[in-house]
Design goal:
heterodimer, A: 280 residues, mainly alpha, 78% helix, globular, B: 291 residues, 12 helices, 75% helix
């Protein structure tokens, strides 16, 4: 019986391999259109699915120019990376303080509920007042977007960190306390490193959310002339006109950074997502 | 008699107070402002007056708002059911004895890491040009015109894209759910001679109910708040047939001079989301307890 249990289900394997067409087809279409010339765009199926006559990077070069690609990429990287670093630092210590405080004090339990309930607040209700407020505070820019992300992801991340804290024995901190170490020092030296698996989860979930977000930069940074990578696709839509080849070259450029990141960190990302959902 | 604050307490408050100020300033404060605006006739600029509950009363008679709620609920309901059925099937497949397991799991997750806006643009092209081309070549009449141009079927186009992206995420969650089911439970059911079908309904599913809860709440919330796909696929058209609540609030609140009115809409939308989430969690908690 053991032997039978180990047998590979080949039929299912093949079905699942064939099923990946649903994932690859749209990406394949985008890829070949990005390389074609407008004159190659035909209305028949065979023509639409065929390879381009010539693999030329002209469309990509042009798309980079039209959408100011490097600038948008720089903004996206800046916003996402800063958000991740600050989220890991600030949300982790907030999660720690709330998690440990909750065990002893009612006030911290209240703070926990207050912050975590923010998870149900849709962006729509905050959007219009936030646009006014950030403009008045001089934050209608990249700094404002980063600050907002730190606030939007706080409920989920605090929940994750304070939940993870249950796995870390308080005894360690008490021992450090007896040795005369301050709470602040104990946190960064002992607890923070021990929360490493949760840092990965938080960083990945926050990164995926902020990298692809359109709405926040759209309403907050609209006056600055700055774009993030997704926002550039929206703002230059009219300039692409009916030149789909140029548009698709631009879409491919916008998808490449996250795809490369995914291919490199695939295992961590899948673990991180599963971890976050299960713990959350 | 109260004890003096220890150093640990001081550190705790020194950390939490700035965090609370940040959270209050950019979450609670704008929410309160939104609620206040919802009682005014503010257009987003110029002067305004308080109008009491008029915006709320008007909401219930406004045809466009009604239409957007109808579309959003239809979309969220269909999306949530489809996504959960599909991703549970996918998870069962990807969790069984197959080859290339991790590669396949990796590939099926790709739609989730890609941004909704760009994916929307790509699918928009497929719906507008590729599918009609297929329809013309093989004489399939319902494919000959773009479904995004049809008032009746455009929502299905948006649904396909939404589901395509969401299945990836929920599959991963269901896989981690299936992995929590101990192997000996299955061995026992094999010994009992249970069929695969029976095994799924009576053994597997009850054990992954907590994961069904997570997935239901997550996908309902995400589908209700649909925005990016609408922006890139239909812009709410044709004839406002795919205008989601988020999109309407954005469109008319930001540029349409309905700041106050759409604030009232956002308040109601917020209450709806909370009510649905709480409802789902209570019902599912009861289910979990029964088992």
């Amino acid at each position: 019986m053991m032997k039978k249990a180990q047998k590979t289900n080949w039929v299912l394997t093949i079905v699942l391999i064939l099923g990946t067409v649903t994932v690859f087809f749209p990406l394949y279409m985008a890829f070949i259109i990005a390389f074609k010339q407008p004159s190659e765009m035909t209305n028949d199926v065979a023509g639409a699915l065929s390879f381009p006559v010539k693999w030329s990077f002209d469309n990509f070069e042009q798309a980079m120019e039209v959408t100011d690609f490097w600038h948008s990429l720089g903004n996206s990287l800046l916003i996402t990376l800063t958000t991740i670093v600050l989220a890991v630092l600030i949300h982790s210590i907030a999660g720690y303080v709330i998690g440990r405080g909750m065990a002893k004090k009612k006030s911290f339990h209240f703070i926990y509920l207050y912050i975590v309930s923010g998870m149900f607040v849709p962006f729509s209700i905050l959007m219009m007042p936030l646009v006014k407020q950030t403009a008045q505070m001089g934050l209608g820019n990249r700094v404002g977007v980063i600050l907002l992300y730190l606030v939007f992801y706080m409920p989920m991340n605090v929940l994750l960190y304070s939940g993870y804290l249950k796995n870390i024995p308080v005894a360690l901190e008490e021992a450090a306390d007896i040795d005369g170490a301050s709470t602040w020092k104990t946190y960064w030296k002992i607890v923070f490193p021990m929360m490493k698996p949760m840092h990965a989860t938080v960083a990945i979930l926050t990164a995926l959310g902020t990298w692809n977000d359109v709405m926040t930069p759209l309403v907050i940074m609209s006056g600055t002339g700055q774009n993030t990578l997704p926002l550039a696709q929206l703002n230059f839509q009219t300039q692409f006109g009916t030149n789909y080849n140029l548009a698709f070259a631009s879409y491919i450029l916008a998808l490449i950074p996250i795809l490369v990141f995914y291919i490199i960190c695939q295992k961590q990302i899948l673990n991180g997502v599963a971890n976050g959902a299960v713990k959350g | 008699m109260r004890k003096k604050m220890t150093n640990r307490d001081k550190t705790f408050w020194a950390v939490i107070i700035p965090v609370l100020v940040l959270f209050f300033t950019f979450n609670t404060l704008p929410m309160i402002k939104g609620i206040i605006y919802s009682f005014t006739n503010y257009r987003g600029y110029g002067t305004y007056d308080y109008v009491g509950f008029r915006n709320y009363i008007d909401l219930f008679t406004d045809a466009r708002v009604g239409k957007s709620y109808l579309f959003t609920f239809k979309y969220a309901l269909a999306g949530t059911v489809l996504v959960n059925v599909l991703s549970l099937i996918m998870a069962l497949g990807l969790n069984s004895r197959i080859r290339f397991k991790s590669a396949l799991r990796g590939i099926y997750f790709v739609p989730n890491i890609l941004g909704g806006l760009v994916i929307g643009y790509i699918f928009s092209f497929i719906f507008t040009y590729i599918l009609p081309a297929v329809g013309n070549t093989f004489n399939i009449s319902f494919l000959q015109n773009s479904i995004l141009a049809s008032e009746k079927y455009a929502w299905i186009g948006v649904l396909i894209v939404g589901v395509w992206q969401a299945v990836a995420m929920n599959t991963i969650i269901y896989i981690s759910g299936l992995q929590t089911v101990p192997q000996d439970v299955y061995e026992a059911s094999v010994l009992d001679g249970a069929s695969k079908w029976k095994e799924f309904w009576q053994v597997t599913l009850p054990l992954v109910v907590p994961f069904v809860t997570i997935n239901l709440v997550l996908s309902t919330k995400n589908f209700l708040m649909v925005f990016d796909q609408i922006m890139s696929l239909t812009k709410g058209g044709p004839a406002q047939s795919t205008e989601s609540i988020s999109y309407l609030i954005y469109r008319n609140g930001m540029d349409g001079g309905q700041f106050g009115f759409q604030s009232a809409n956002a308040v109601i939308f917020f209450l709806v989301i909370v009510a649905i989430s709480v409802f789902q969690m209570t019902v599912m908690n009861k289910k979990e307890e029964q088992l």
